[in-house]
Predict the structure.
Amino acid sequence: MQPIIKINLDHEEIKLIDIPEDWKVDYLGGASLGARIIYDYLSPGLDPLSSEMPILFLPGLLTGTLGPSVGRFVVCGRSPATNLWGESNCGGFWGPELRKVGFDGVWIEGKADKPVYLWIKNGHVEIRDARHLWGLDTDQAKESIHEELKNRIAHIAIIAEQEKR
């Protein structure tokens, strides 16, 4: 398995975490690996929305291979609804592209003091200022990032605040 990118937004630290050997056999990636990582954070007093609670983006075991329907990744963490497990399964290019550039996941914890985004390219990871994206919808943010990077084919996963109704 490839390393996981661990981002601490409190300190703008980026580390590469190697998955323990026994986990590579017992938790093959995606949701099962996410559940194992989250397990260590399931103390009763830790709020799911706390900056200490990680959110994980993890491709599945076969993501990026030539198999059928293998473009999936999960976003998982502790659910504010149940106070236990929360998971969303996603498709598209993002999971395979993450694996293609050398990583088996992104682990984010902490809280940035300003809007930021992650730029991952060819094994290199940067935390970049995203104040100029604040308030944009997902289509506008995607277009702005493409223009900024001068890269029309960059694959982007965007989390945007939903407008209140």
User: Anything to note?
Assistant: The radius of gyration is 16 Å.
